[in-house]
Amino acid sequence: MASEGTPNNAALLWPYVLPFLAYVGVASIPESWGVGREANYALRIVATGAALAWSWRQTAPLRGPHAPAGSVAVGLAAGLLGTVLWVILKAPFYESGGEAWSPTAFWLRVAASGTLVPVFEELLFRGYVLGLVVQWDRARRAGSRVPFAVAFERESVNELEPGAWTPWAVVISTILFASGHQTGEWPAALAYGLLMAALWIGRRDLLSCVVAHATTNVALGLWVRQTGNWTLW
């Protein structure tokens, strides 16, 4: 049960979800409204940054029981591995080439995907979703008749022990993570979600996941720009 004074998962829903919604909401603005690619990414940075600033003190810490320097090193290595996985698994579903992005749009996307996106996606999918499913699964196995109500209304993912997981938690959080991507990216996103879950379990912190995610996003952008395979971005 959540400690007295600690927000339960129902109260934590918005702090974890709002940055994701802010980013996706701005991304959904059609160019026909006069918002070009450059302006759209600038708006994403402002809106998502504001949402993260509001929610920051309400979400779980990124650090875990191990030294941050080790988590950064592990995250960098996992991020480069994730880049290779992403390219290999996505390439069969897309033709090579594609229209190049303008330098301004490119660097704005790199800035957003290398800073904000890894933070809010890892907090949401490996922090909130995976943690909530762990607490639901534990309540279910303990014989609760309403395991989701117990997990949502009486527990707090902010108090979950670092690295906690169950098979259901890994599967559901990975599927939800992949569902936020384009259909042709699903194999890559599923593999990547499993990689991030493995980092959470093995390293027992979100910092390694955030660093890995940021490394992959930046490395992928630089690889695409260097090779001209813009459809893989």
**Radius of gyration (Å):** 18 Å
Low-confidence stretches: none
Task: Please summarize the sheet with the most strands.
Answer: none
What gap, in angstroms, lies between the N and C termini? 42 Å
Name the shape in a single word.
globular
Number of helices: 8
**Beta fraction:** under 5%
* H-E order: HHHHHHHH
Query: Mean pLDDT score, rounded?
Result: 97
Q: Could you tell me the number of beta strands?
A: 0
Helix content: 55-70%
Class from helix and strand fractions: mainly alpha
Care to describe what's here?
By secondary structure, this protein is mostly helical. Helices cover 69% and strands 0% of the residues. It has helices spanning 9-27, 37-55, 68-90, 103-141, 147-154, 167-179, 186-203, 207-227. Helix 3 packs across helix 8, helix 4 packs antiparallel against helix 6 (167-179) and helix 6 (167-179) crosses helix 7 (186-203).
